[in-house]
Known about the structure:
Layout: E1 2-6, E2 9-18, H1 24-38, H2 41-44, E3 53-58, E4 68-76, E5 87-91, E6 94-103, H3 109-119, E7 128-133, E8 143-150
Antiparallel strand pairs: 1-6, 2-4, 2-5, 3-4, 3-7, 6-8, 7-8
Amino acid sequence: MRKVTIGHFKVIGISVRTTNQNNQAGKDIADLWNRFMNDKISEAIPNKIDNTVYSIYTDYESDHTKPYTTILGCRVENLNDIPNGMIGKSFDGGNYVKLSAKGDLSKDLIINKWLEIWQMDLERVFTADFEVFSEKAQNPTDAEIDFLIAVK
């Protein structure tokens, strides 16, 4: 775990409003990923900076126990051209704690890391937390995912 500063960035992708109550987010986010992959959303995003996929948790009602929005998308140069059915959002960046998880994506790698994060004594600000699926995440059975958690 290390502290990093993230600059301003923009993302275009698809989103869902969800909650961690009754494991709803597990279903909603899995459905969002299926749509992202099956509909080849990444290929349709204009002005991409690279092919890294971001799973962003934002618009928190208060904290991780209340509703929030998940966006799956890619960083873009601008928000001038947002395709129908997608959203574009600008993030201010700020102070973050960076953690990583390595292993098999099909074996609850991501949710297990979030369960760990929720137990940590972090001064979270609940603005925009995200996972980074870079080239290190291409092999689903041996993926490395970065988690960036917004803090004071």
